[in-house]
Amino acid sequence: MARQLITFAALAPLLMAMAVAVIVPPAACAFRGVGARESYHLRFYMHDFSNGPNASAIVVAHGTGPLLGGSSDRRFGDVVVMDDTLTEGPNTTSRALGRAQGFYIASSSISGDPTLHISMDLVVTSGPCSGSMLAVTGRDNVLAPVRELPVVGGMGRFRMATGYVLMKTVNWHGNDVLLELDVYVHA
What we know:
Layout: H1 2-32, E1 39-48, E2 57-61, E3 79-87, E4 96-106, E5 115-124, E6 133-141, E7 147-155, E8 162-173, E9 176-186
Antiparallel strand pairs: 1-3, 1-9, 2-3, 3-4, 4-5, 5-6, 6-7, 7-8, 8-9
């Protein structure tokens, strides 16, 4: 009988260590938000208008560099703050899904190279992801047919999001631009 107690006493620390090894990693992953992630594909149409009474993009600092080219009169160094409507379809009368809020900077000093640096939050105001937000930042070579920008984070349903946005110009007239955003994200 004494021999069995010694054997159990010798195994108790090992059993305790095994229990901790099995229980702690899942708890730590849940605490950090790591684990099963959902994939999302969202499509928005972004209406970026600098002209007219409903302008959603305003130049707040005028650059002094060369004109960027394209059909825009933006110059190197221009800083534009935006609060653009995100819609379900390309028409301004399409159902509003959210807002693209942030800024962009004309970041190329080479004339004829309309490149921007964009930093924006895609704020969802409608549908099952309402109240959630994605943070997007990166380089936008506006003459490329498709541009890729990284998703660097999010809030709400998109907490700790990673992914990318494929951006296409649907219509560009002067400083008014309609963009199609295909957002691929894991959160």
